[in-house]
Design a protein that fits this description.
Blueprint (H helix, E strand, L loop, with lengths): L19 H4 L1 H12 L2 E9 L10 E8 L4 E7 L8 H5 L13 E4 L4 E4 L3 E4 L11 E3 L8 H13 L9 H20 L3 E2 L1
Antiparallel strand pairs: 1-2, 1-8, 2-3, 4-5, 5-6, 6-7
Helix pairs in contact: 2-5
């Protein structure tokens, strides 16, 4: 999402460490870990060319997971586009909604786009000469933030275990730090 100039009137937001890798990428990293498992190595590049601040305004990241899956991510707070979670998920009324996706996940038997949940496959076949099919599963119409709050209350009451544990948070922060290191050094960082 393009952050307006006034956002950077606060000095710390222009300093190293306040860019989108450490401030915003946490949500994408959490989702990748949830969907694809644990990462084992990352590569990255960053740039501050759009604004010229000490911190990055844009970055690209490649991730290799324990099972061999690969992921690529781009993030920028200097890009005008509809391909971000805020604009596509329709969860926050301050962002204009777009009928687009923010995530594209491809596998050997199918693919998935998020948040629209378009599922693509060759209808059980693994032959790319067959027609590619698209299905859109039904979703729970409840608002995600309300569902999260209800789950949180149940966790506090000790009725259920948390979906995300403190150990998960540590793993996500470790991955974010590795991504930042890779983007700053240009080196492959193994976890």
């Amino acid at each position: 999402i393009y952050k307006n100039d006034e956002y950077f009137d606060v000095e710390w937001r222009r300093k190293k460490g306040a860019g989108p890798i450490l401030v915003n990428l946490v949500h994408d990293v959490d989702l990748l870990r949830y969907l694809l498992g644990e990462p084992v190595a990352v590569q990255g590049m960053q740039s501050s060319a759009a604004r010229g601040f000490e911190t990055e305004d844009s970055a690209v990241v490649n991730v290799r997971f324990a099972d061999g899956a690969l992921a690529s991510m781009t993030i920028s707070d200097a890009t005008a586009s509809p391909w971000n979670w805020e604009a596509t998920a329709r969860e926050d009324p301050q962002y204009r909604p777009f009928d687009a996706d923010a995530y594209f996940i491809g596998g050997t038997l199918g693919a998935l786009s998020l948040p629209r949940l378009h599922q693509f496959s060759y209808n059980g076949a693994s032959n790319w000469h067959k027609p590619l099919q698209m299905e859109i599963p039904a979703v729970d119409p409840a608002l995600p933030h309300k569902m999260q709050l209800k789950h949180f209350v149940k966790v506090v009451r000790r009725e259920v275990e948390p979906v995300v544990t403190p150990a998960d948070n540590v793993k996500t922060l470790t991955l974010l730090n590795a991504i930042k290191e890779a983007a700053e050094t240009g080196q492959l960082v193994e976890l």
